[in-house]
Specification:
This is Seg. It contains nine helices and 34 strands. With about 650 residues, it is α+β, with helices and mostly antiparallel strands.
């Protein structure tokens, strides 16, 4: 049994070896020169046609063949025929060389080679003239293409990449079927020509530096399929053009900041291989946000093969000393009333002027309930510059009249509707409520903390009434202070461009916009001190989220009277931008526009849709009730007025 197993094993091994020997893998063999026509000894001017073949496997890439020092003619076929004109050659011995390369040998560095010598004689028609005898392929009736006797270039010594090169072509035939030109790169003015001698232009744009060529093929008029065309390459040297010097533009959106603010650096370069800002490599063109704490100089350097370009700019930063108090007067206008401790002041041209008693306030035509500290505390209010006291209407009538005539000439004195605990000066005449007095009829209450001795002493009824009215005044004042930090009412018409942007896209714009402002006014309001404190800025180039503003007076196709505003939804690589808007061209409809061009009459408001209150600004007031405010008033204020 063991012997039987050994015999079986031998048969299996022999079978495997036999199967391997009967299906060998094809190796890249040597190329074969199968035939040359005409045979050796042909006269100069003959077309010499060479047929080659090769045994191959999957590693085969291509074969090429040449006659003497003529240009290579290449093919990926495993069997083909190529013809060479000899009209421009001299009698002598020439080598036919065939090379085959593998797939990993694109440079023909290690080809398999076959060679054969061939004799040209000075027989009839020698010298390459057009009288050379017509040759046809073996067994065929169509003649080979005419000999290509000249491919010359001008300028002859080479040119820079991108130059236009003149090419002169000549074939040895009075009536060629056609001549084709195929450049290795670029393009030629003629892809095909029918004259035996002509010039064409070769545009070398897009070519690489080094040796390039034009392949010229000529066919016989009876060979429309170019089956037996004669082909030849003319080689030409191209050099790299001199490197262009890099250029750089470097600018900043805002070169003057207050400490804590930020701005964007922007730059654009050409012909640069590397760009850096103060040693940090950046994109060749782009932007970067910087928030310098002190005045800072920024330097950009663009380096290329043609040299270096440098640009610098300085961002000036203003610092505010910790001891410098913010100017809180900017929160008030002339005629506003504030209270510091037990003192009442009227704001006049940015100063606080002490009011000596309620009657003086009434005589100025200012309602007592207008006290509104805008949520500021006494320490903050005390930083507002204090001017001279307002003359007492009861003790210095002439001084009071002069003061009122200068600062409040158009207000109407207020006459209390009920008896006041203070003596009414005889000079103050009763009058009806006027729209110009800004607050209606006074109720005659004593402002909270106003340290004035009543004369005569009020009755119990008057004191209860005064207390109740003081509670209402307190609630009204606190509610008004809180409302200063709420967005204003919506614009009345969202089909208008301003209403659409403010009501639907930029709700926070209602913090810094004047109610119902026309579009062209938005830039001025965004440039105001109040808007800047809220982080709003105006630029000349768009970013997503900006408010685009078209000025009035014929900015693009915007309304010439009111201008136009739109919300920037995105910005395109070419600098144009896309918007969401309403009432473009007066159609009162919401819509979108793409690829909108930036015009010199346009501005872009940034930060207006997402404002941030400055650190020194008062927050919405946190209410601390005096002991005498009843619970029902606290509940009413908390549930209704502070919502």
């Amino acid at each position: 049994m063991k012997n039987l197993f050994k015999v079986f094993s031998v048969f299996v091994v022999v079978g495997i070896i036999a199967s391997l020997s009967t299906t060998p893998a094809l190796a890249l063999g040597n190329p074969q020169i199968d035939s040359v026509s005409p045979g050796s000894g042909a006269p100069v001017g003959s077309n010499v046609c060479i047929r080659v073949s090769i045994n191959w496997d999957d590693e085969y890439r291509a074969m090429r063949v040449r006659f003497g020092s003529e240009g290579w003619q290449e093919s990926s076929e495993t069997s083909f025929e190529r013809c060479f004109g000899t009209g421009h050659l001299s009698p002598g011995t020439y080598q036919i060389r065939v090379e085959a390369s593998r797939k990993d040998d694109n440079s023909w560095s290690n080809p398999n080679v076959a060679t054969q010598n061939y004799e040209l004689t000075a027989g009839s028609g020698g010298g390459g003239g057009n009288t050379s005898p017509t040759k046809t392929p073996s067994g065929g009736s169509v003649p080979y293409g005419p000999n290509i006797s000249q491919i010359s270039f001008s300028p002859s010594g080479g040119a820079q990449v991108g130059a236009n090169v003149n090419v002169h072509i000549k074939v040895d035939s009075n009536n060629p079927g056609a001549i084709s030109l195929t450049p290795s790169c670029g393009n030629t003015a003629h892809a095909e020509h029918t004259s035996p001698e002509f010039d064409t232009t070769w545009n070398t744009s897009g070519c690489g530096a080094g040796e390039q060529f034009i392949r010229v093929c000529a066919r016989h008029k009876d060979d429309p399929n170019w089956t037996y065309a004669t082909c030849k390459k003319g080689f030409y040297q191209l050099s790299s053009p001199p490197s262009q010097a890099p250029t750089a533009d470097f600018w900043v959106d805002d070169d003057s900041l207050v400490q804590g603010e930020c701005t964007d650096l922007r730059w654009k370069t050409t012909n640069a291989e590397q760009v850096d800002i103060d040693g940090t490599v950046v994109a060749k063109s782009g932007s970067s946000t910087v928030c310098p704490g002190i005045t800072t100089r920024y330097s950009l350097k663009a380096v290329g093969s043609g040299g270096t370009a440098t640009r610098s700019l300085t961002v000036t930063v203003s610092t505010i000393s910790a001891t410098d108090a913010p100017d809180y007067s900017r929160y008030f206008s002339t005629g506003d009333v504030i209270q510091i401790g037990s003192d009442i002041f009227v704001i006049v041209n940015g100063q606080r002027r002490l009011v000596p008693n309620p009657e003086t306030l009434d005589a100025l035509g200012i309602t007592r309930s207008m006290i509104n500290n805008r949520g500021l505390n006494g320490t903050q209010l005390a930083t507002i510059s204090r001017g001279s006291d307002i003359p007492d209407v009861k003790r210095d009538r002439s001084g009071f009249d002069a003061f009122k005539s200068q600062y409040f000439p158009h207000t109407t004195p207020i006459v209390p509707a009920s008896p006041t605990p203070f003596s009414q000066p005889e000079s103050v005449q009763p009058s009806q409520e006027s729209e110009s007095n800004g607050g209606g009829v006074s109720t005659g209450q004593q402002p909270l903390g106003w340290d004035v001795s009543p004369d005569p002493y009020p009755s119990a009824t008057d004191r209860v009434q005064s207390w109740f009215e003081s509670v209402l005044d307190f609630i009204s004042s606190e509610a008004k202070a809180y409302s200063e930090w709420l967005p204003r009412n919506d614009f009345p018409d969202s089909t208008e461009c301003v209403g659409f942007v403010a009501n639907t896209k930029c709700r926070d714009a209602l913090y810094w916009l004047d109610y119902e402002a026309h579009a062209y006014k938005w830039v001025d309001m965004a440039s105001s001190e109040k808007a800047r404190e809220l982080g709003v800025r105006v630029y000349t180039t768009p970013q997503p989220g900006d408010i685009a503003v078209w000025d009035r007076g014929g900015c693009g196709e915007a309304n010439s009277t009111y201008g136009h505003v739109a919300y920037v939804s995105s910005v395109n690589p070419d600098g144009t931008f896309n918007v969401v808007e309403s009432n473009w061209s007066g159609n009162h409809r919401e819509g979108r526009r793409a690829n909108v061009e930036v015009l010199s009459c346009m501005s872009f408001i940034r930060g207006g849709c997402n404002v941030t209150l400055p650190a020194e600004s008062p927050a919405p007031p946190s209410l601390s009730y005096p002991w005498w405010v009843p619970d029902f008033a606290k509940q009413f204020y908390d549930e209704y007025l502070r919502r």
